[in-house]
């Protein structure tokens, strides 16, 4: 079992920045990939960013050049640095991990609000 705890969400003006954190605990030795999804009201869940155990990254087109995903394996924590935020980035952001056995674990979500 892996537990994920997100933090860092909040209200920020358009053009501002936030950094989300995702701290993992439990069976951390099994963690492989880590990433972030988001879901806005009335919209489907959207993959935002992914980082593999080797450090390779992948981003949704909508956030490329503005968001950066990183991980600190010593702290068992993943980060999502979000710059140049737009109103359309408003959503609940969920951290997830995929273990080496293929299991998925999700955090409880953190709200990011960028007023239009």
Structural overview:
This protein is an all-beta fold and 116 residues long. The chain has strands at 2-7, 10-11, 18-26, 31-39, 46-51, 57-59, 67-72, 77-82, 91-99, 104-106, 110-113.
Helix-strand layout with pairing:
Blueprint: E1 2-7, E2 10-11, E3 18-26, E4 31-39, E5 46-51, E6 57-59, E7 67-72, E8 77-82, E9 91-99, E10 104-106, E11 110-113
Parallel strand pairs: 2-11
Antiparallel strand pairs: 1-3, 3-8, 4-5, 4-9, 5-6, 7-8, 9-10, 9-11
Please give a quick description of this structure.
The chain has 116 residues and is mainly β. It has no helices and eleven strands.
Structural class estimated from helices and strands:
mainly beta
**Biggest sheet statistics:** 7 strands, mixed
Shape, per Cα inertia axes:
globular
| Average of the residue pLDDT scores | 95
What level of helicity do the residues show? under 10%
Q: What is the helix tally?
A: 0
Rg from Cα: 13 Å
Segments where pLDDT lies below 50 for 5+ residues?
none
Distance between the termini: 39 Å
Strand content: over 45%
Query: What is the oligomeric state here?
Result: single chain
The succession of helices and strands, N to C, reads: EEEEEEEEEEE
Instruction: Kindly state the number of beta strands.
Output: 11
């Amino acid at each position: 079992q892996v537990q994920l705890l997100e933090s860092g969400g909040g209200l920020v003006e358009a053009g501002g920045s936030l950094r989300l954190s995702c701290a993992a605990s439990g069976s951390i030795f099994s963690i492989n990939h880590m990433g972030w999804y988001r879901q806005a009201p009335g919209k489907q869940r959207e993959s935002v960013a992914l980082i593999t155990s080797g450090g390779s990254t992948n981003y949704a087109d909508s956030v490329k050049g503005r968001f950066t995903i990183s991980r600190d394996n010593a702290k068992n924590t993943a980060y999502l640095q979000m710059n140049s935020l737009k109103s359309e980035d408003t959503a609940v952001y969920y951290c997830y991990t995929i273990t080496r056995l293929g299991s998925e674990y999700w955090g409880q979500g953190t709200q990011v609000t960028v007023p239009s």
